[in-house]
Recover the amino acids of this structure.
C-alpha cells in the first residue's frame, strides 16, 4: 500500500499544481510578429488509437493569432505515446526557439 500510495500522491495531488504547460514560439510570416503560446499536455492533446485501446500517439492543432495582422498561424504538433514531441508543422509562420523569441523582443 505504501508504494501505491506514493504513486497516487505523485500523480494525484497534494501541494500546489505545477504548471505542466509547454511553451512554443512562432513568428508570423506576414508581419514578423513573435507570439508565444502554451500547450497543456494533459488537456490539449487528442489521442489517436491505432491498435487496441492504448493511445499510440497524440496531436494538437492550435490557431495562433497575433496582435498585428490577425492572420491565424496554424501549428500542428504531434507527440508519441509518452507525450514527447515527435513532430511539428506551422502554416503561416515559423516555429522559433525561446532564445530567438527573447532576443528579438529585446531588440524592439
Ligand atoms: Zn502577423
Amino acid at each position: 500500500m505504501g508504494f501505491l500510495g506514493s504513486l497516487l500522491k505523485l500523480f494525484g495531488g497534494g501541494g500546489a499544481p505545477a504548471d505542466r504547460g509547454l511553451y512554443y514560439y512562432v513568428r508570423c510570416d506576414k508581419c514578423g510578429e513573435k507570439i508565444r503560446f502554451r500547450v497543456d499536455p494533459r488537456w490539449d492533446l487528442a489521442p489517436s488509437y491505432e491498435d487496441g485501446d492504448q493511445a499510440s500517439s497524440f496531436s494538437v492543432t492550435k490557431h495562433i493569432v497575433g496582435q498585428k495582422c490577425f492572420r491565424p498561424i496554424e501549428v500542428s504538433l504531434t507527440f508519441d505515446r509518452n507525450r514527447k514531441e515527435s513532430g511539428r508543422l506551422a502554416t503561416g509562420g515559423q516555429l522559433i526557439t525561446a532564445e530567438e523569441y527573447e532576443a528579438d523582443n529585446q531588440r524592439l
About this structure: The longest helix spans residues 2-12. The two ends are 56 Å apart (CA to CA). The chain has one domain: 20-107.
